[in-house]
Write a sequence for this structure.
């Protein structure tokens, strides 16, 4: 039903495309007016149309490959008042819930076995930990990356403005400035290449 009424929203690429465009606006590469028109124009129409014809529906639980440690049934992602969380699909017989851990695609630098997951502190601040917690107690406020420190071989984290312009090694303090390593010429070349491929 959602796919039918919100084709743009359900499209998995949509959100990331929108984020890319917002980043381009923020960095001055794109004018915001046409982008916002592009986004809100069809969106507004779709919402109005859907509001008229769509019955009130419960948002479907999203399946996962996580297994409930209490009853062995699969866990599903539910949307609650405080955001997304994992709940047992055996509800109401099994009321097990767990916080939803978003994997960021980086192996845990401390144990090398678990994966780095994004978590939220009680005050709502984002931090990064190991998926094997409490066996592994790796924790970082800054987002770890797969790149290793060229100086000491330790793990590196995103640092600097908006946590994306500088890679920093927490162990030895070595920094890699990402903005400086990419020359303006090469960025222009990448943009031209993407435009040629129709992906920009
Ligand atoms: Zn269960
Ligand atoms: Zn770990
Ligand atoms: Zn280092």
């Amino acid at each position: 039903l959602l796919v039918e009424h919100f084709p743009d929203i359900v499209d998995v690429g949509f959100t990331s495309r929108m984020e890319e465009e917002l980043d381009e606006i923020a960095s001055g590469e794109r004018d915001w007016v046409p982008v916002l028109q592009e986004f809100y124009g069809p969106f507004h129409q779709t919402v109005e149309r859907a509001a008229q014809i769509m019955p009130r529906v419960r948002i479907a639980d999203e399946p996962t490959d996580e297994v409930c440690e209490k009853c062995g049934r699969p866990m599903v992602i539910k949307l609650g008042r405080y955001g997304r969380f994992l709940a047992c699909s055996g509800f109401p017989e099994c009321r097990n819930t767990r916080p939803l851990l978003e994997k960021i695609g980086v192996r845990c630098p401390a144990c090398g076995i678990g994966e780095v997951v994004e978590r939220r502190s009680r005050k709502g601040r984002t931090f990064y930990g190991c998926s094997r917690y409490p066996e592994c107690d790796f924790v970082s406020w800054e987002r770890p990356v797969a790149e290793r420190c060229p100086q000491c071989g330790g793990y590196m984290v995103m640092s600097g403005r908006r946590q994306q312009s500088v890679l920093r090694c927490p162990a030895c303090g070595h920094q890699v400035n990402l903005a400086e390593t990419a020359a303006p010429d090469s960025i222009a070349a990448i943009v031209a290449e993407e435009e040629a491929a129709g992906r920009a």
Summary: The mean pLDDT is 77. The pocket of zinc ion (ligand 1) is lined by residues 68, 70-71, 73, 88, 90, 94, 96 (CB under 6 Å). Helices lie at 2-5, 7-10, 12-26, 32-53, 178-181, 184-197.
